[in-house]
Amino acid sequence: MADSDSTIHLVSSDESLLNSARAALGPIADIEVVVHSDADDLMQAGTGPGDIIFLDGWGGSGSENIYETCRRLTGKTRCRTFLVGGNEIQVAEPIAVFCGATGVLTRPLTTKTCRNALTAVIAPRAPLPGDNRGKREPVLPELLVKDLVGESGQSLIHAITDPETSLFSFEYLTLKLDEEYKRAVRFRYPLSCVMLGFDGQADNEVLRKLSGVFLQFSRDTDILGRFDESSFLFLLPHTGPDGAEIMARRIGEQAEEMGLRDLVGDPLNVVVGISSCPHPEVTRREELFSRSRDAFQAAQHEGRGAVRVS
Q1: Looking at domain 170-309, what is its CATH homologous superfamily?
Q2: Which of 68, 89, 224, 291 is positioned for an S-S bond with 275, CB 3.0–4.6 A?
Q3: At how many degrees (to 10) do helices 170-187 and 285-302 cross?
Q4: Per-residue pLDDT tens digits for 38-68
Q5: 191 CB-near residues (< 8 Å, 6+ apart)
Q6: Global pTM?
Q7: Residues near 223 by Cβ (< 8 Å), separated by ≥ 6?
Q8: 6-125 has which fold?
Q9: What is the DSSP letter of 178?
Q10: In the chain, where are the structural domains located?
Q11: Distance separating alpha carbons of residues 17 and 225, to the nearest angstrom
């Protein structure tokens, strides 16, 4: 590869990523690195043809997750965009590509991976929406869409949500648990993990009504998902154990008032397990999850309406 003049826009406020990027890009000739604290800062500064964006996969802007940020950037720039994250970012590559990214890069950045990113062979970018007013928007090739999200008529939202409840799917919850835990640790705010469920089985109508209760008592920034057939997992940013318990009890009370019943006609026995960080026994996302699961199992043994905080 012959090095060419390029500007890399690094969107991150993480010093460790900034330092590794500078070290990795240093040996590559004719590269200018411009650092932006967030996507809004990048959009205000502007980009040029041939520029490349490295987007911190552990970042995000307010309630906007990194994939929404990626979609926003690729919709307004002609730049190749790479999401940079830990090993888990490889699992999320199909979602990243669907959201407009050229690919993903794994921390720590190396000269080799950066050089490969600079020489990535991609098809020409479609015209920006403003360049094509009044014309039909380009669509992704049918086979590519099927590869990413299944049937070509299926949207990204359908690909990451549970069809019976319209809450997030288990697979997407796994990605969000990692993302939200790292964000909470980095910015030092509380994060609660809530596992809620009931004994037995329920039909789709009851599940939809129960999901409506969840949404009624949640905020836009909360992540609500279906864990398995009869249990659910919530991630509540900026919420400690007391706030999570209040939410859980309100949900249980509302479900009881609505008279929701399982397939055999018994009232739903809603129980809840809660864990939070920061906590001296939570140093990894797996521990945050396992403590909520253990609390949930203990609540199941206690019986109807039990809420256990670990």
Answers
A1: Reverse transcriptase/Diguanylate cyclase domain (3.30.70.270)
A2: 291
A3: 120
A4: 888 898 998 887 788 999 887 654 456 777 7
A5: 180, 181, 184, 235, 236, 237, 238, 239, 276, 277, 288
A6: 0.55
A7: 168, 173, 176, 180, 234, 235, 236
A8: Rossmann fold (3.40.50)
A9: H
A10: 6-125, 170-309
A11: 31
